[in-house]
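Anyone up for a design puzzle?
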């Protein structure tokens, strides 16, 4: 069921420029010959390298361990060879450098052996959080907050409603819009896992009314899951 919220006086409304990046489907970038991976991928402590220069690595292989509670591991995005572990310039307003792992890719994109979970409902909430942490999953907002922490509320509080934020905060970005259009089923899979881990029964998906295609795609995906409301 789709519901519309009321408005409020005041505020700033910027003209949207989203059509520039919604005219073509999501595409994969071509694989670069060299990848530079900052160890500071999120708020909190940077991860610690567990590889050395010259090591061969596979896609999905852990190359840096979490350091401290607010931290997650780092994994190789593709197969190749570690060619440097040193300070590199990173995208930062002050032009700072950070410790990075550099990989020379081999073009094979070869995965490590994977062990998928066939039924997450057989896991505890703690086990799900640990899997999410070990996967290195973080939020894509400004802080890059580790996702496993968001799924670990205080024992003194009960989460009654999970709110999924499909609202884009800037007039140009369209990443949420496009992923809802093209990956609605995958989003719902993730929502169901989070609801299970948080023990919540109610979920609200918030989408702006300037995303009619995303709303339609999410509603269509929801229609195939009558157990969700």
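Challenge accepted. My sequence:
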């Amino acid at each position: 069921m789709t519901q519309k919220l009321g408005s409020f006086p005041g505020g700033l409304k910027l003209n949207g420029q989203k059509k520039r990046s919604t005219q073509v489907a999501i595409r994969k970038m071509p694989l670069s010959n060299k990848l530079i991976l900052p160890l500071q991928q999120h708020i909190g402590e940077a991860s610690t390298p567990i590889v050395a220069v010259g090591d061969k690595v596979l896609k999905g292989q852990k190359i840096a361990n979490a350091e401290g509670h607010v931290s997650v591991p780092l994994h190789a995005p593709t197969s190749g060879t570690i060619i440097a572990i040193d300070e590199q310039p990173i995208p930062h307003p002050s032009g700072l450098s950070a410790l990075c792992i550099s990989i020379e890719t081999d073009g094979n994109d070869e995965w490590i052996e994977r062990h998928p979970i066939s039924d997450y409902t057989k896991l505890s909430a703690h086990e799900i959080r640990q899997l999410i942490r070990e996967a290195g999953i973080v939020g894509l907002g400004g802080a890059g907050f580790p996702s496993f922490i968001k799924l670990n509320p205080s024992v003194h509080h009960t989460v009654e409603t999970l709110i999924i934020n499909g609202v884009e905060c800037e007039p140009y970005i369209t990443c949420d819009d496009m992923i809802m259009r093209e990956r609605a089923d995958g989003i719902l899979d993730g929502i169901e896992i989070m609801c299970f881990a948080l023990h919540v029964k109610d979920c609200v998906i918030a989408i702006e009314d300037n995303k009619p295609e995303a709303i339609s795609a999410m509603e269509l995906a929801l229609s195939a899951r009558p157990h969700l409301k």
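A detail worth pointing out: The chain has five helices and nine strands.
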